[in-house]
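Entry 14. Ran structure prediction on the chain below.
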Amino acid sequence: MLLSNPHRPDPRVLLEGRMLLEAAIGVTLIAWGREDGWAKHSEEAGIRVIRAGPLCPTRSPMKVFSRLPRFWWNALNESKKLEFDLVHAHDFDTLPLGLAISSLSGRPLLYDAHELYAKMIESEAGPLSKLVWIWERRCVRRADEVITVSDSLANELSIGRRTRARVVTTSQDPSGAIRTDSRETREKYGLTGFVVSYLGALEPGRFVEEFISSFSPGEKVSLMIAGSGTLEPLVAKASLHDSAVRFVGRVDVDEALRITRASDLVLAMMDPSNPNNVVGTPGKIINALAVGRPVITTEGLQIGDRISKVGAGIVVPYNRAAFRDAVLRAMGDQRGLAEMGKKGRALYEKEFSWEKSREGLLKAYSALLGRSRAETRKGIVALSMIQ
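Output, structure tokens:
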């Protein structure tokens, strides 16, 4: 696998790695070691991790564009030391690298699109994003297989391709979290009253700034936040001065699921002016559905339309007043929240389950490696990959 962040860990990479390891597929990850403090070589949750430089700040477009080719070069050299059967590139900033490794090694390439990259960088890169978009479309057509997180993205990424992109959602097995006593989780973090949680990237456009200033301590609402990003100092400061805000930093995917289950309402508000937000399916929403917790999300998002249609949560405009009013009304309707949770769980089982995600990923691998190299074992396609 190829990844353009240090793997802190990256939730989608970790969950897909678990699925592959369960199917007896070895996984080696070459990640961009763009931050200090991470081991160059390690094994994490069964995944062999190799981090290649150079160092690079995350929200500095010019530095990213100038240093990304150096990462590609270093990662390409690392790949020459490995034996492998398949190249799995995460997001467009590793796709040209994946194409190069695939071409040099003769191994097939799987492209894993978490979003439309050019749309993601549009506000920071300006006109340059249009050139990236053209390049992105051309590279996607050359990948042997494409997987992505939603039907809308699959439709977009399938244009000009001979085979359609597959949908593999970022789902995890919720069975452990469901068995956990939510009271213990609340006690662990000092959560009282009505708990609204946000677990994810602390970046603009995710309603983070609005969230931490929505309620005062006397209103019996606990605002639980976990994650990392450029807004982390702001969130940390808020937690020191406002007892309504609980900030715990970065947590692993299993703990995130336990916190989600211990919540009364899960925040997944995203700015609808960002095209990727409109068509994406955030992992935090899937997690909430998995453990039967209602979400509050934004009007204008396709996943918001889906949530509203099945009654699995609350959909409001992207502003603090609407959010605050919705939470206050939800506090007085525990029966309604429980019903939303049940409907969300049913939606998860129907469309987003761990089993469906695993099946989709293994089908993509099987299609690339061929049935002659696949072994069917108890209904699961297990492939032999050399690390």
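Residues 2-171+353-383 form a domain with the Rossmann fold fold (CATH 3.40.50.2000). Will compare against last week's run tomorrow.
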